[in-house]
Model the fold of this input.
Amino acid sequence: MTHFGNMSMLDWLQQNQNKKQKDILMRHCLDEIGKFQKQKLDYPTHTYHAKTIRSDIERSDTYYLQQFLGIDLNATQKANYAFAKTFLVDQIEKIPLAPMHFDFHSANIMLLPKRTLGILDFQDMQIGPINYDLASLLTDHYYHHPISEIDMYVRMFYDQHLDNAFKATYTEEDFLKMTHWVAIQRHLKNIGIFSKLFFNRKKHYIKHIPGMMHRLRQLCQPYDQLTEIPDLFWSETQQEVFKSQLGLLNQAEQTEINYIDILNHIDTRTTHTFEDTIPMESS
Done:
């Protein structure tokens, strides 16, 4: 095996299509999450509690819907979204806690010599849902894994890295749902953050939102309480406003965000699979 070099995991994924090597790398990442969660922290650490979980969700309201799109939801939409947010927060708050990196995705994972992983950006480390880093890894905003792989690795993590006490309380299917819910919350949070960054001279982050919206729809679809979320953020109307906002950028800015690629990925959404219609690019 020679795939571990001095590059990010994101770089490696974009350059390689070897399924066997990718599987080895993904398993290595699961091992890292499992080991990290077993650490005993000897210093005070912030806990990701319900109030912050909710306020992070609401970043998408403030920065994406209101500031970027300039759209206010009507009374019925607000009520439906309030119900969905409460459901998400209530479910996530019940998940057992563990140390979490909080931004464990391919751009923050370095492939070093001797098959060693280097993990970057620990500044937001805190205590939170035991599956938060797993959701971050598998529903990466910068590289999109097939949903079949996502669910396979969630089940693998349950089998190999959770203790018997956890398994006595929660089934594998419970854990799969929990991970979907955390991934949905994280997508809503980061849709808001990426929209905010757009106005802070970091416009390139906006190019990831169409792919995030497709994944959001995919994750919400199995859950009756959440099926309306995607249309609140990515209806045909919202997509047209999204495209028109990008159309206002100057040529250099449109080049920076790969404007034509974004339009193509939005417009082909109904004729290709999810994984075929989204950009797999670094930020």
Remarks:
- Strands lie at 7-8, 97-100, 109-112, 116-119, 126-129.
